[in-house]
Amino acid sequence: MRKTIYTVIVVLFLCLSMYSCSTMYALYNDNIYRGKQLLLDKEYTAAEKHFQQAMNSLRDAVSLTFLAVAEYKMGNLEAAGKLIEEAAKEKPDTLYQIRTFGYRAIILTKLDKIHGMMALKDYINRYENLYPLESIGELKGMVQKGNIDAEQMEKTIEEQIEWYEKEMEQYLTTRTGFYAREELSRDCQ
Predict the structure, then answer these.
(1) Separation in Å, CA 139 to CA 56, 92, 161
(2) Is residue 100 part of a domain?
């Protein structure tokens, strides 16, 4: 009888734990989604609150990166720098890795030119392996000259992030678009 009661208690505990995990992830997803929308609307303070709540649910590269971006957009460079460095140490997320390393270059350039240059080189190496836009040449030119035009770099990286994330979202949801080309070529053989 005791064994049966113990088994029932363990099963109930596991069910509640699984429910709690799925609820936490739903909360995380909702906060990331809402924060992204607010970020697009330039509502940085409200976005920051959603990203903070997402990070409280799950501290990963995505929540850290978006929180860093919101802090950066609000002018909190020190906080943004700490968050983006922590995000860069986490396991990269396929969809948002370019955002993480792009904003790392942007933020570190504003904080420290030498670390910013190293972060820009790292970003170029990562982005280059993903079949980048031709604008990668502008960033390479800055590195070669040893002179970063921070405003132009930010504009270029944000354009690259937007393009990459849009293409990746299309690929992940419909298996079409630029990143589906390899699957299509395999299917044709």
Answers:
(1) 35, 22, 14
(2) yes
- Say what the pLDDT of residue 182 is: 63
Cβ neighbours of residue 47 closer than 8 Å, sequence gap 6 or more: 35, 36, 38, 39, 66, 70
* Residue 62, in any domain of the structure: no
pTM higher than 0.85, yes or no?
A: no
User: Which tokens sit at 185?
Assistant: 């070529």
Q: Which two tokens stand for residue 66?
A: 């978006």
Instruction: Specify the number of domains making up the chain.
Output: 1
Which tens digit of pLDDT belongs to each residue from 18-65? Answer: 444 467 778 899 999 999 999 999 999 999 999 999 999 999 999 999
For residue 134, the tally of other CB atoms under 10 A from its CB is 6
